[in-house]
Fold these 2 entries.
Entry 1:
Amino acid sequence: MDTITLQEHLLELPLGQVAFFPVLGSTNTEGIRWAEEGVPKLSLVVADEQTTGRGRSDRIWQTPPGVALAFSLIIRPGQNMAISTSRLTGLGALAVCDVLQSVYKLPAKIKWPNDVLVRDSKLAGVLVETVWQGNEILSSVLGIGINVARNSVPSQEDLDFSATSVDAVLGSTVDRWMLLKEVLEAILTRLPQLDQDGFLEDWEANLAFRGKPVQILRDGAEPDQGQIQGLNHEGFLRLRLSNGEEKLVQSGDLKLRQVDRT
Ligand code: ATP
Ligand code: BTN
């Protein structure tokens, strides 16, 4: 798909500038560059392949050519909208869940803070990065990667968590560009609700492993173990520890894992 065809495909959506790149390092890097240059809000960078796609803490996100979705949407804070990176991450994950559930009837869940799972395997990830102007947020770049075709899934020895693709869990072939449009529509529908309690409730309701024993793993620290209770207003995870206390876990360099799966 070239840029013109992509623009035509997304014509009904109120996007800013739209561009398609056959190969990019990372759509988020390009999106940050665009934001710094002052592109219109809701501009969209799409790549067929990423050579240095990244996740949180600069972990690698693989996007081979022709089989996945990798895109970044530039979001500017509205007048009354306090953009929090945490809520935007939830927005991206929730929008992917919305589409997988409503259009494709898949049991999608959010592995807090930034992954989308179907049947305990990851098929999408979200990375939100912020462009500052002094002390103010100029833009946020909402990057989403989705494994669409079966051969978009990295080999399991490269991974620390089970991965899958939309086609694999569906048992049929999905049109990547249709899926892109559906996810963008879901993002645009949810965006005005970002500050509302209803958004938080929907995000919470879609959390994976809710009420189940999980561990929060961090390098060089003892894991926290407890049950997921939900989220606080800022999108921090509310974890009920075994001593009954509730601990708030802020997103960062951590891994969430389910325990006692027997
Ligand atoms: P984990 O998925 O291990 O819990 P995380 O949530 O801590 O990871 P992220 O930054 O969210 O870490 O995801 C990056 C990780 O995702 C990489 O370290 C790699 O293991 C995995 N990964 C990379 N590319 C893909 C992909 N296309 N599909 C699924 N997983 C991927
Ligand atoms: C994760 O699970 O760690 C998040 C992965 C986010 C990947 C997307 S693909 C589009 C955008 N460009 C990047 O380099 N990363 C995000």
Entry 2:
Amino acid sequence: MKQITIDGPAGSGKSSVAQGLAKELGFEHLDSGALYRSAALLWLHAKGEAEFLERLSEAVFSLRDGKLCMNGRKLGDEIRTPEIGKVVSKVAEMPEVRKIITQKTRMLANGKNIVVEGRDIGTVVLPHACVKIFLTASVEERAKRRYAQYRAKGIDLELEDVVKEIESRDRIDSTRQVAPLKAAEDALIFNTDSLSLEEVICELKKIVNEKLKKC
Ligand code: CDP
């Protein structure tokens, strides 16, 4: 089975690129950020840390029609709000949370041809993956993309606030003790500034197909 990892900071285009690439290759797609966002949702609703950790370890994640489900329910816009965006990196910093989600992500990816995206997939979760990609883009470009996504969902906020959210998550994600955001040594680093989604997918498809022949 062949695994492709796509890591990178918020707004670098991981989700759209991972989905597009998976479709082109006929692979499944898993967004590990959605597991951390679900953890943040549980955190916001739990009464204290013990209850939160118990709910998170007991949560059953599955892929249904390409969508991630938690305890049988498809996860949608409720995990993509600015409220979750504000707390998710703090929740993802907790070593216990990382341990649980790393294990659940591996279980979901196991035995599949799959594209898995996140922050530590190539470095920690699937270090033996066939192909590893690390996407980057400037903070300005990433904030503009995220701002457009929020607006498209009818969420009204200032671009300045989105820049703050992105910068704060970059800082926490890159400096945390356990599994910080960084490119694996054997990852291909790809800058998506001023490239359209189609251009990125087209370019990566060529590179990935070459690499897949060798694994
Ligand atoms: O979509 P976006 O890039 O904004 O973020 P995401 O992939 O949905 O991930 C949300 C947050 O989860 C990140 O900012 C990280 O704090 C955390 N995360 C992580 O720590 N490790 C991963 N493999 C994936 C996400």
